[in-house]
Amino acid sequence: xxxxxxxxxxxxxxxxxxxxxxxxxxxxxxxxxxxxxxxxxxxxxxxxxxxxxxxxxxxxxxxxxxxxxxxxxxxxxxxxxxxxxxxxxxxxxxxxxxxxxxxxxxxxxxxxxxxxxxxxxxxxxxxxxxxxxxxxxxxxxxxxxxxxxxxxxxxxxxxxxxxxxxxxxxxxxxxxxxxxxxxxxxxxxxxxxxxxxxxxxxxxxxxxxxxxxxxxxxxxxxxxxxxxxxxxxxxxxxxxxxxxxxxxxxxxxxxxxxxxxxxxxxxxxxxxxxxxxxxxxxxxxxxxxxxxxxxxxxxxxxxxxxxxxxxxxxxxxxxxxxxxxxxxxxxxxxxxxxxxxxxxxxxxxxxxxxxxxxxxxxxxxxxxxxxxxxxxxxxxxxxxxxxxxxxxxxxxxxxxxxxxxxxxxxxxxxxxxxxxxxxxxxxxxxxxxxxxxxxxxxxxxxxxxxxxxxxxxxxxxxxxxxxxxxxxxxxxxxxxxxxxxxxxxxxxxxxxxxxxxxxxxxxxxxxxxxxxxxxxxxxxxxxxxxxxxxxxxxxxxxxxxxxxxxxxxxxxxxxxxxxxxxxxxxxxxxxxxxxxxxxxxxxxxxxxxxxxxxxxxxxx
Length: 604
Ligand SMILES: Nc1ncnc2c1ncn2[C@@H]1O[C@H](COP(=O)(O)OP(=O)(O)OP(=O)(O)O)[C@@H](O)[C@H]1O
Description:
Elements: H1 2-15, H2 17-47, H3 60-68, H4 72-122, H5 125-130, H6 133-174, H7 176-192, H8 194-223, H9 225-230, H10 234-284, H11 289-335, E1 356-364, E2 375-383, E3 387-392, H12 398-405, E4 413-418, E5 421-422, H13 428-432, E6 435-438, H14 449-454, H15 462-471, H16 475-480, H17 498-510, E7 516-520, H18 528-541, E8 546-550, E9 562-567, E10 570-575, H19 577-582, H20 587-603
Parallel strand pairs: 3-8, 3-9, 6-7, 7-8
Antiparallel strand pairs: 1-2, 1-4, 4-5, 9-10
Helix pairs in contact: 2-4, 2-6, 2-11, 4-6, 4-11, 6-7, 6-8, 6-11, 7-10, 8-10, 8-11, 10-11, 15-17
Bound molecules: adenosine-5'-triphosphate (ATP).
Adenosine-5'-triphosphate binds next to helix 12.
């Protein structure tokens, strides 16, 4: 019940007055529908199908009196004319009401989609690290689809209930006793059917869980398709897929079972009720023929609405878990929201570092319930317009440190200062807007080289594009492509080699003319010749920007002005490249000697 109220509140918050307008349309449509039914009696009487005694049945007797003032030959034409007018007006109104319905529904979905997407993008990095990406994909596609369907059903439910109330009102007017009898049966049936709604909700929860597993599994497996194929893991994955699909199928069949059982109950009971109702009307209540006819028409239209309401309630119950899931994620995102101003996009020159970036006694933990610190008492100074390299064994804390320097992770203790001023939640975005980041796992879109570049700086000219490509030594391979900048690079850039991908990503980062260039393993996929080119590029770029680079391949950072060596989240060595390589017992010297030996052996 709480969830349905939440849903109604949210829908009302979005649609407001439009919902009332919709309701008003429905009331008028139902009234016109009722008038159409009332017109049937004199019409059938005039045609001669029935010789109905109109007696003192409300509305019909008034209508009959009016008709008597018209010459007999025109009576049928007049009544048919009114009938056509009433039905046409009803159809016209219905058309507009359906349109309004669609507008409310689609607008509501648009606003939900936007809210959840904005909340996702506003959430901080640590939140994203802790969640499965596939859960978000699931929410934004399948769960939103279910909520959409639930909204359609909800609006349909309001329509049905409005129609029902009006028709019950008319029926009450005609015969209170008979109407009460039917309503009593309806309430009784609704009470018996509560369990169907409960089951539908349980199966709806199951649908959410199954769909989550489906999305997560598909996502992981498609990302790891190379591993699956090269390790011959196809069969085990097909078995997993088979089992999950079996569960999905069983879940849907169970839901249909609940629906068909309740429909069966409603249909059989409706046949019994209609029989009982006609019998009682004729034998016990002695209803007049015209009155009986109107009531039978009303109830034969009314009763199926009970069935529709029951079926709608069950289906809404099965989609409510999707709505709850959506609100939960949105709430979690909002709990982790950064105070980012979304209209400010990262851009060039929004922040210039004059002196340098400083870490003052920085501590960081991914999980505050654990004792483990990924960064412990880190104190360091990164001078502007210099190249600082961060090295260390795998798991030493290099990525955590640069994520902290970029303001993606906020220190648990200590602070990050730019030119001596501590970063706050507000200024951290200025810093982030001034960074060009080249990640380890390069991210490229399945489109042309040009569009991949323009994504970073849509206003860049052809000349600026080529300048950036030259700087990153990516121009040579692109010039060889027949379509040049318009060449398509495939999904995540699969049509390029690892080195080509990395150089393209570097060009993309440079296009922003960032104040700080952060590179995570920029040369890991490059051969010696290209590595040298990148070294030269970085050397040149030092004059224009501050460079921070993580490197496993130490030859890449030969020209670094400062090297920071991390181990277990702490700085254990720092200094110039030559200085550290000369420290015989230092970790850096050992790492360097180890890499040189491997290189020499490979060269033999
Ligand atoms: N999202 C995370 N949640 C929890 N712990 C994490 C997370 N990311 C990293 N860690 C832990 O923090 C420590 C530092 O990890 P980090 O990724 O910074 O190391 P690294 O030096 O960059 O390693 P590599 O060279 O392998 O990329 C590791 O012990 C790692 O297990």
